[in-house]
Write a structure and sequence with these properties.
about 240 residues, alpha/beta, 9 helices, Spore Coat Polysaccharide Biosynthesis Protein SpsA, Chain A
Length: about 240
């Protein structure tokens, strides 16, 4: 059997209404990899109280593997557990309520190859209002119509070796775990390559992590403090690469 080429990690918590669509969007992309480039899809159910695990299990015959956390640990814990179980040379991510776009892998792999031996490929994201959302709530939420750079886990592709050089996602944050990881990646010298294509569709449904955990926005201040502390701890004269937020 050929070694796994790409591992896709999908953390999920109470995502039963959306997970099937997310998995279908990923499965459509993994087919495009072709023979000799096998992919695995790992769903990490983070102690869901709905039918998330059952939805994931129903895809077992299509190459989806389910890992269950008995106690909710948060998105950082779930992603790290998925990465620890992954065997792919390359890593990609998706949140269980979002969608990949068609041909994203082909375009991101091309960008990654063009970035050289150390780099991370990113695309753009487009947000959309979930059709199931209550109209009253929909009227209160702003959904920007234009694509924007997807400097987030769901918008990136990278080599497993480069992920390992940066280290795991922070596990103590309700929000901000990717910003912390990306800051450390840039400090390691990894170069972000941004393509203009939309590679991620982000579903706005009113219970998104960043909406539910507004009280945890102090996490962003902690992320910034960690980055400043690391910068101060470096030998004088070392320069960090400036880059995207």
């Amino acid at each position: 059997m050929a070694a796994t080429f790409l591992s896709i990690v999908i953390p999920a918590h109470n995502a039963a209404p959306y997970l099937g669509e997310a998995l279908e969007s990923v499965l459509g992309e993994t087919v495009s990899l072709g023979a000799g480039r096998p992919a695995e899809i790992i769903v990490v159910d983070d102690a869901s109280r709905d039918g998330t695990a059952q939805v994931a299990a129903s895809y077992a015959g299509r190459g989806v593997r389910l890992i269950s956390n008995p106690v909710q640990g948060g998105i950082g814990v779930a992603r790290n557990r998925g990465v620890a179980a992954a065997g792919g040379e390359f890593l990609a991510f998706l949140d269980a309520d979002d969608l990949w776009t068609r041909n994203r892998l082909q375009r991101l792999f091309a960008a990654l190859e063009g970035a050289g031996s150390t780099g991370i490929a990113f695309g753009h994201t487009r947000q959309f209002a979930c059709p199931r959302m209550d109209p009253a709530l929909r009227g209160k939420l702003r959904v920007p119509p234009d694509p924007m750079p997807a400097y987030c886990a769901g918008g990136m592709l990278l080599r497993r070796a480069d992920f390992n050089s940066v280290g795991r996602f922070a596990e103590g944050f309700a929000v901000g775990e990717f910003i912390d990881w990306f800051a450390r990646a840039k400090e390691k010298g990894l170069r972000p390559a941004l393509i203009g294509d939309v590679v991620l569709e982000r579903r706005i449904h009113g219970t998104n992590q960043t909406i539910q955990h507004r009280q945890s926005y102090a996490d962003y201040a902690q992320v910034l403090k960690r980055a400043l502390d690391r910068r101060r701890a470096q030998p004088e004269g070392r320069e960090f690469r400036d880059g995207e937020p």
